[in-house]
Amino acid sequence: MTGKQLFEHYQAEGSGNPGSDASYYAGILFQSLLIMGEQKTYELLEEAERTGKKLDLNYPIAASQGPSTPDQVILV
Question: In whole angstroms, what is the distance from residue 65 CA to residue 14 CA?
């Protein structure tokens, strides 16, 4: 599957299950679009699919230090 197809798959999976892990992951992917743009998000999704990993958000400060906005998308 292409990155765009993977993105659409995860978005469809998450939209029917509010509050689920699928919905949470769909939100991460949407945030990735905002941080990195479509092309890089799709490329990272393809890499995640090949390596058995998932995308996640990285925050510049620890949650214990206060609210923060994600600044990077990483593979985990």
Answer: 30
DSSP 8-state symbol, 58: E
Global pTM? Answer: 0.90
- Rounded CA separation 74/31 (Å): 12
Angle 37-69-67 (CA atoms, 0-180°, nearest 5)? 170
Total of domains in the chain:
1
Q: Is the pLDDT of residue 23 over 90?
A: yes
Sign of the dihedral through C-alpha 14, 24, 35, 45: negative
Domain hosting 9: range is 3-75
